[in-house]
Amino acid sequence: MVIVVVVVVVVVVVVVVVVLTALMTIFIDWIVLVVVCNCISIKVNTAPGNQ
Description:
Keywords: Membrane, Transmembrane, Transmembrane helix. By secondary structure, the chain is mainly α.
């Protein structure tokens, strides 16, 4: 019985870690995408002859 509980706990922990890692990866990718887009738009806006 103890073994079953340990296995369940380990599986739950692994699933939680995987989900959190996936969410963090998506979140970081989204932040990087926003920052890159902002930098590109700033460069385009400040480019000479584009005012």
